[in-house]
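Renewal narrative, Specific Aim 1. Our central claim is that a sequence can be written position by position from structural information alone. The example that follows is taken directly from our test logs and has not been curated for this report. It begins with the structure tokens describing the chain, in the order in which they were read.
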């Protein structure tokens, strides 16, 4: 199990905190506003740190020195970028990501080596994938025969916590890699889908609509 530090206790921060906490990880959430922690469930076992997310003492209080990853998801672009830089450059956290509302700025920081998620662009992509049928599978690569495509697939929240082997068996797709907290990773036999994962799978072009349909719904429960 790993330690994660999250800056910002808004809707995104709370979702991240709950998901990581439920997975058995150690979590510390930082927010300037004490009342923001009311959004966390009563059974949340992580730490709640009141303070500025880019303040070094605040970060140390959140045990940043032992963090596997740091996510800055507050409502301020500048604060998110500054906090991410402090986490990476001062405390050498191996995995960092910042949420940025301005897509143009997000691209600039991405080129500078700071992993970012552009909130506006991400939200627009998610909406388009739900209202345009042809957007349900976003293709990244098509092999020479044209029969296979490597594409990004969207999964229903009901798949959270399920292993990728189960996801492959249900959909017929082969998961190639996933992006978690801005970092690419190859799923292993025990890897489970987490909320926020971006999943890329190799699949038969003729089956993309069927695969999208299976994954857009919660997994079918086995009859007892």
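The sequence written for that structure reads:
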């Amino acid at each position: 199990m790993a330690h994660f530090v999250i800056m910002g206790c808004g809707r995104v921060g709370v979702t991240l905190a709950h998901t990581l906490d439920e997975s058995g990880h150690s979590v510390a959430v930082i927010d300037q506003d004490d009342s923001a922690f009311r959004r966390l469930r009563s059974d949340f076992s992580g730490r709640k740190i009141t303070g500025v997310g880019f303040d070094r003492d605040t970060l140390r209080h959140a045990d940043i020195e032992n963090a596997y990853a740091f996510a800055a998801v507050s409502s301020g672009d500048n604060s998110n970028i500054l906090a991410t830089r402090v986490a990476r450059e001062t405390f050498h956290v191996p995995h960092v990501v910042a949420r940025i509302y301005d897509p143009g700025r997000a691209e600039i920081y991405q080129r500078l080596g700071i992993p970012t998620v552009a909130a506006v662009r991400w939200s627009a992509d998610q909406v388009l994938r739900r209202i345009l049928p042809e957007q349900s599978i976003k293709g990244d690569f098509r092999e020479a025969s044209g029969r296979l495509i490597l594409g990004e697939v969207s999964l229903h929240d009901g798949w959270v916590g399920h292993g990728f082997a189960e996801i492959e068996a249900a959909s017929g797709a082969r998961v190639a890699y996933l992006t978690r907290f801005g970092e690419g990773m190859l799923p292993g036999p025990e890897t489970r889908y987490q909320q926020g994962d971006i999943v890329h799978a190799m699949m038969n072009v003729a089956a993309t609509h069927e695969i999208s349909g299976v994954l857009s719904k919660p997994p079918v429960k086995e009859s007892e």
